[in-house]
């Protein structure tokens, strides 16, 4: 078996020499040693000649990501223990800063050097109008905690408001993060809420599309009816009756239906003279004193 493998290897070496056009090997030389300079370098040689660097978007180790999340949660807890800011949710779009100040000012301890520092109203990112949330900053952490305990769950503008401690207000957080510019909760709201702009934004788009489709169908139906009426008038049939010509069309329809007798009687009644009417009413006809019966009475 080893002899067969050796014969096969020698045949392959002879074939390579014929393809490469090299001289015959001297006696005692091995084929692999003399053919190394004709073959491409091995893969390891190619890898050692180039340097490899990891991509710039390499993802951090999952353990490092978890550690970062733990650190951020710890920092958030520390910020909540020291914060003096409250987040207000479920507000009406029509609630003003004065109303918020009136409600939270009753709990704030102004006499001890505290009170409300400022109120930041949440705004629609596109329209810059109130969109149902706000931030209230106090001077002390204790005031923020007291307001969260006593005010959260109460009604303001006939709405139950929600108060939560906030790590701290930063510029840009006053704008809504929804696709339409408002809050995300108003994007997917399916019920009608008059205090928050009516329908949700997605439902509002659906309602607008539905009304647009209905209006287009109504216009199409009106156009079809108008075309049918015009086609009927062109063919001599029914259609729109011009103003002031209703009695003519009534008579024509009566003649077509076989009710011409009443119409003829009414027409004959209109053509009677005053003498005929007097004869029917008084049994005799009275002469008009302004007219003479015979012109022969005039004698010169």
From TrEMBL:
Gene Ontology molecular function, alphabetical: RNA cap binding
GO biological process: mRNA cis splicing, via spliceosome
Protein location: Nucleus
Annotated region (Disordered), positions in chain: 229-300
UniProt cross-references to InterPro entries, sorted A to Z: NCBP2, NCBP2_RRM, Nucleotide-bd_a/b_plait_sf, RBD_domain_sf, RRM_dom
Assigned keywords, A-Z: mRNA processing, mRNA splicing, Nucleus, RNA-binding
Ranges of Basic and acidic residues composition bias in the record: 247-258, 271-293
Record domain RRM: where: 84-168
GO CC, any one term: nucleus
Name of this protein: Nuclear cap-binding protein subunit 2
Organism: Moesziomyces aphidis
Family note: Belongs to the RRM NCBP2 family.
Signal peptide: none
Domain of life the protein comes from: Eukaryota
